[in-house]
């Protein structure tokens, strides 16, 4: 009867890739003390020898699938449309003083700003996305990360020629340097801005010929992880069909690194 009870357990172990149980060793044998438990190679996931993705990875996969399903995948930034919950904000153009509207607020608009979007689907969350089309002017031999920091980061003026790139990586919560299938260089970083009001800043830079696309997403004070990853996939990845960093994540609960 005892052997009949063990048969189902033994069958399950063999199906999962484990070796059948070995006979117990004599505790007095020399090799007995050297024996270590080795976990079976399979059975970590339901019905599979490969563990299922964790919560964050599963969320990244859903965000990537949603971005690919839009009509804007690989169509370029000029064709970028706002996702649900966002609306396009008109970008003011330079006008003659005499032609300006009397009610128009005098706000300086960066010359390279080509489009802007704002999130209006939540009472307590503010999200502004700006897309810049800078002229690609990275000095030869300089990394895109270094060029982006020196040209567009608030602390860029503190970077000296003697400083190695690694010396200012800790200004950010995360930094990724990538190449897409077409060889375009990409840099993406994120950090919590220093100031009275909490704000998270997510930025991506993509070199495309004579263009340096710069996408800036500011989130105040924070947003759910699933929303953040979906927005980054839409604004950062979809226009140029680019890859996402493997460690892309939100910054909820993080403090400023600056």
UniProtKB/TrEMBL annotation:
Location of region: Disordered: 23-56
Keywords noted in UniProt: Signal
Protein known as: Lipoprotein
PROSITE patterns, alphabetized: PROKAR_LIPOPROTEIN
Cleavable signal peptide: 1-18
Superkingdom of origin: Bacteria
């Amino acid at each position: 009867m005892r052997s009949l009870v063990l048969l189902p357990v033994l069958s399950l172990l063999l199906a999962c890739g484990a070796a059948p149980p070995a006979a117990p060793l004599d505790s007095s044998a020399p090799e007995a003390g050297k024996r270590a438990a080795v976990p079976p190679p399979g059975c970590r996931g339901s019905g599979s020898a490969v563990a299922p993705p964790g919560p964050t990875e599963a969320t990244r996969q859903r965000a990537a699938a949603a971005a690919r399903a839009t009509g804007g995948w690989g169509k370029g930034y000029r064709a970028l449309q706002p996702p649900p919950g966002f609306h396009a904000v008109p970008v003011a153009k330079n006008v003659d003083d005499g032609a300006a509207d009397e009610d128009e607020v005098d706000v300086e608009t960066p010359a390279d700003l080509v489009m802007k979007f704002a999130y209006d689907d939540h009472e307590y969350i503010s999200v502004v996305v700006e897309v810049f089309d800078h002229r690609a002017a990275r000095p030869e031999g300089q990394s895109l990360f270094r060029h982006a920091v020196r040209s567009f980061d608030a602390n860029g003026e503190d970077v000296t020629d003697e400083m190695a790139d690694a010396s200012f990586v800790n200004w950010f919560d995360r930094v990724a340097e990538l190449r897409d299938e077409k060889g375009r260089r990409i840099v993406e970083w994120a950090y919590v801005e220093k100031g009275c009001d909490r704000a998270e800043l997510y930025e991506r830079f993509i070199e495309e010929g004579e263009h340096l696309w710069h996408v800036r997403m500011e989130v105040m004070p924070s947003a759910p992880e699933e929303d953040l990853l979906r927005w980054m996939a839409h604004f950062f990845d979809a226009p140029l069909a680019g890859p996402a960093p493997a460690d892309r994540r939100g910054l909820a609960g993080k403090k400023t690194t600056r």
